[in-house]
Amino acid sequence: MEKQRLFSSASPLSYSSNSILCCNSLLLLITLLVILGVFLPWAGSPLFLFSNTNAPSSSFPSKWVDYSLAKAAKFVAKNGTLIACTVSYPFFPFLNNWLISVSRQKHQDKVLVIAEGYATLYKVNSKWPGHAVLIPPALDSQTAHSFGSQGFFNLTSRRPEHLLQLLELGYKVMYNDVDMVWLQDPFPYLQGSHDVYFMDDKTAIKPLSHSHDLPPSARNGRTNICSCMIFLRPTNGAKLLMKQWIEELHAQPWSKSNKGNDQPGFNWALGKTAHQVDVYLLSQAAFPTGGMYFWNKTWVEETKGKHVTVHNNYIIGYDNKMKRFQDFGLWLVDDHALESPLGKLD
Prior knowledge:
- This protein is an alpha/beta fold.
- It has a single domain (62-339), classed as Spore Coat Polysaccharide Biosynthesis Protein SpsA, Chain A, CATH 3.90.550.10.
- Helices cover 41% and strands 12% of the residues.
- The chain has helices spanning 2-39, 62-65, 69-76, 92-104, 118-127, 150-156, 159-168, 236-251, 262-272, 290-293, 297-302, 318-327, 333-336; strands spanning 81-87, 111-115, 132-133, 172-176, 180-182, 196-200, 225-232, 279-281, 309-311.
- It has a seven-stranded mixed sheet. A two-stranded antiparallel sheet has the order 5-9.
- It is globular and about 50 Å long.
- The protein starts with a helix and ends in a 10-residue tail after the last helix.
- One of its GO terms (biological process) is rhamnogalacturonan II biosynthetic process.
- It is a single-pass type II membrane protein.
C-alpha cells in the first residue's frame, strides 16, 4: 500500500518531466527537419556558398551544361564579331560593372561570357540566356581570382585556347578583362585590317602621335604588352600568335618559384612571331594602363576626353580594385545596376 502511495504521488512529477523532455525532443526534431527541408535542396545549388561550382549538377538546366562554344558564339556574334571575357564566380560584381559600361556603348548584345565554373554559367544564363558558355574542364572558382595563385594561372593560361577556338570558328574577337571600364566605344579605334590589336602596359609617356608598331623589347628581350584587351581577326597571323602563346604557357607552367600569369607568355609569343603577324599598338591616350590613369594626374588632365577604356591594373587584391574604382567614380553597379543585362545581383 505504501509503495502504491509513493508511486502514485511521484507519478505527476515523472509524467511532467517526461512530457517536457518529449516536447523538447519533438521541437528539436521539427526544427532539424525544417532546416534540412529548407537548405538541403540548395546544397548543390551554385549560389550556396559556392559549393559544387566545378561539377555539373541536376540543378543546372541540361541545355546550358551541353551548350557548345560554337552555338554560343553564333548566338551572340553580330556581323561576325563578338566580345569575349573569362569570369570566375567571385568576380561577378566586376563582370556586372564592366557590362554596364559596355551597355552604355550599345555593344552588350555581342558579349560572350566564358564561364570558368558551373555557378557562373548558370547565374549568367538564368538572367541573360545564351550569353555564357563553359569550356570543360571547370576550374576552381574559389582560388582563380587570387593573383599569383595556381588557380589564377590556370584561369588566365586558358585564354589563348579559348580565343584560338573562336578564331577557328571564323569570328573577329575582342577580348577584355572584366576589371575594365569603357568610357567610349573602342571599335572606331581598330583602324585598318591588322591581325592583332593590343595596348601597351608601360607607364612611360608616349607622344600622342606615337608609332603603332610593336614597341622595342626591354633588357630581358620581352615587350610589355597588356593581355587585358586584345582584338583579333580570324587570320593566319592571329592564329599563329595564339598557338605560340599556348606553347609559351606550356613551356613555363606555374610553380612556387614562377607564380606567373598569361601576360609574359603573350609577350614572348609576340616577339617570336614579330615578322609573321601584322600587329597594331593602340593609342596610349585612348587605352592607358592603370599605372598611368590612376597614378599620373597631370597626364590624365592633359589627355582628358581622349580615354576610351580604363584597366584597373597595377594594383593587387579584389577589395583594393573595387575601392579604387569607387574612389575614381568608376564603380557603377551600386547606382546603375539596372543598366546591366544581368540587372541587380542577389
